[in-house]
Amino acid sequence: QQKVQQxxxxxxxxxxxxxxxxxxxxxxxxxxxxxxxxxxxxxxEVLVSIFSDGEKEEGRFTAHLNRAxxxxxxxxxxxxxxxxxxxxxxxxxxxxxxxxxxxxxKGTKLSVKS
Amino acid sequence: xxxxxxxxRRTICKSGTSMRMECQAVGFQATSVAxxxxxxQKTFELIALSTVNSAIKYEQNFTQEKFPISHPNLSFxxxxxxxxYLEDRGLYLCGAxxxxxxxxxxxxxxxxxx
Lengths: 114, 114
Fold this sequence. Notes:
- The complex is a heterodimer of chains A (114) and B (114).
- Chain A is mainly β and 114 residues long.
- Chain A is built from no helices and eleven strands.
- In chain A, strands 2, 4, 5, 9, 10 and 11 form a six-stranded mixed beta sheet that branches. In chain A, strands 1-3-8-7-6 form a five-stranded antiparallel beta sheet, with no helix packed on it.
- Chain A is globular, with a radius of gyration of 13 Å.
- By secondary structure, chain B is mainly beta.
- Chain B contains no helices and eleven strands.
- Chain B has strands spanning 3-7, 10-13, 19-26, 32-38, 44-51, 57-58, 69-73, 76-81, 90-97, 103-105, 109-113.
- In chain B, strands 2, 4, 5, 6, 9, 10 and 11 form a seven-stranded mixed beta sheet that branches. Chain B has a four-stranded antiparallel beta sheet with strand order 1-3-8-7, with no helix packed on it.
- The radius of gyration of chain B is 13 Å and the shape is globular.
- Chains A and B meet through β4, β5 and β10 of A and β4, β5, β9 and β10 of B.
């Protein structure tokens, strides 16, 4: 069964400094990775989706995937206080078309101080 | 853009009663809908995955008898929590598979059981 772990559990950065979040997964055949964020127990906002090794940028959010190392990261450039939220890593298998079945990590709580 | 609306946003129900929640995809056709629950202090767990013209697949620990789901067309799904008790409280998210194979989430329906 897929296990998804995120680190750190919480992170505080200053406004404008790069924020880096990590996610490891256990199933090396996974090929569908997403980063979401959740503000104050509300719904999820999709930030970046990545399907192959390398880098994918969406605005200030960049995901790096290294499937050999079972690792995907999220980097937030010039974070602002409004980026303070819980960031969730979600992993799925695309095979069988069931990539709606995501396994989530427990999240990293990011606080951005002005 | 792709939007997912969930209703109601919050419900307080008495222990042993039932709660029905709805999920509407706007601006796209949702061939798959996934229902997740975020229990207090936990991450998101998949309850079931519903694909139009296929049987609804429930995850371990979740059953159709407890969480019946209807997915009558490509824009709407509903799920009921029958005989809700304290352990059923949490934020219920509907994720609809939309453009780019991305799962878009609504803001959730929060269930409070008293």
